[in-house]
Each structure stands twice: as structure tokens, then as C-alpha cells.
């Protein structure tokens, strides 16, 4: 596609529920990143994929967070047993390859845990 | 202490002014330096990038990196109301995928 697409754009869920957030990167981009942005703060790194594999998952806060990219294109961020502190905008970005200096972000999924 | 510090502002200037936005950092391993612009409820948009020290100019925007001082700047000339947004600096090490972002400076350019 022309840009990075994230769905849903908004998600409200109850504490303790499971959620999946989807990212459709720019066609042909091999690098994919997930970031989380809280109000008034900059994006915080979560995980980086190069192709199908997670090249760096050091930013995932705990084992409730998991991400996959099974075919090297679409990625899903999965959050189990959601907590109110998980409320944030989850941003996905893609880039043409390893070592690219900047990437293209999607508009994000605004997750609210009530 | 955060790795990347950025004055949150807010910064308000009249149209046509020169704007200076700055970040400091503590990790000397950072080699790539980026500036992103973020409008409300949108994702960050890459404006400028610089590798190592030096200046880079693109239209009304100039990015400067001073690695000896661990200080980077973005200058906007002839600022326009459409420049009103939050500006985020970001940086990363060589061969590292992830970038570390500042918390952003909110800029308003008044007509």
C-alpha cells in the first residue's frame, strides 16, 4: 500500500482482556517496528522485525506482550491480560531494510483499557 | 536521567520567525540523528536525518549535530502556521534497528 496501515484506529477494552493490534507495512519493506507512545512522551521502542524474525525484542515490557510477523509482511502485536497502564497509542513503522536511518510510521492504534 | 532530553516547550512564535529546536543526549554511541514532525493524532513523519556530526539543509529546515557536545538542533526558517506541530528528535546506534526518541517540543506558529 501507499503507507503504513494500522487497525483498528481505536480500541477500548476491559482490564484483563486480550487484544490484537494489526500493522500492514509499506509493500516491500522488510523492516518493521512497534513503538508505544504515551501522552506527552516520545515513542518508546517495543520490537523490531527484519523479515519474519524479531531482530530485537528488548523493548517488550513483560511477557504479556508478544508480536508476530509470520510471512514477513503484516504484523500483529498481541497483549494478554491488559492493564490500565497499557493504555497508549501503539505505533507501527516500516523501512526498506536493515540500517535504514528513518522509517515511515502509521497513524497508530489508540488503546484504552478501562 | 533519560538518554535523550528535549525541552517540551510549548514554543510559540510569529509567522516568519526562525525557530530553533534542540536535544541533548548522553549515549556517545549514537551515530544517526533524526527529526520527526508529529501532528495531533497522527504518526511521526521523518523530516531530516544526519549521520555523525555536521549540518544538513533541506528547504527551510537545517539540522545540525555536534557530537562533541552531544547536542543536536533543528532550525526552521520563515516559519509557517502549517509548521505548528510537535517535533521529536530521535537517534540510534550504527547497526541498531531501534531509535531512542526525545519527548518532543510543541511548536505553535501564529499568523
Written description of the protein model:
With 114 residues, chain A is mainly beta. Helices cover 0% and strands 48% of the residues of chain A. Chain A is built from no helices and eleven strands. Chain A has strands spanning 5-7, 10-13, 19-24, 31-37, 44-50, 53-56, 65-68, 75-79, 88-95, 104-105, 109-113. In chain A, strands 2, 4, 5, 6, 9, 10 and 11 form a seven-stranded mixed sheet that branches. The model of chain A has no long low-confidence stretch (mean pLDDT 94). The termini of chain B are far apart. Chain B is an all-beta fold. Chain B has no helices and eleven strands. The model of chain B has no long low-confidence stretch (mean pLDDT 94). In chain B, the strands form two sheets. In chain B, strands 2, 4, 5, 9, 10 and 11 form a six-stranded mixed sheet that branches. Chain B has a five-stranded antiparallel sheet with strand order 1-3-8-7-6, with no helix packed on it.
Name some characteristics of this structure.
heterodimer, A: 114 residues, mainly beta, seven-stranded mixed beta sheet, four-stranded antiparallel beta sheet, 0% helix, 48% strand, B: 111 residues, five-stranded antiparallel beta sheet, 11 strands, globular
> What percent of residues of chain B are in strands?
over 45%
In terms of per-residue confidence, which ranges of chain A show pLDDT below 50 for 5 or more consecutive residues?
none
First-last Cα distance of chain A:
33 Å
User: How many strands appear in the DSSP assignment of chain B?
Assistant: 11
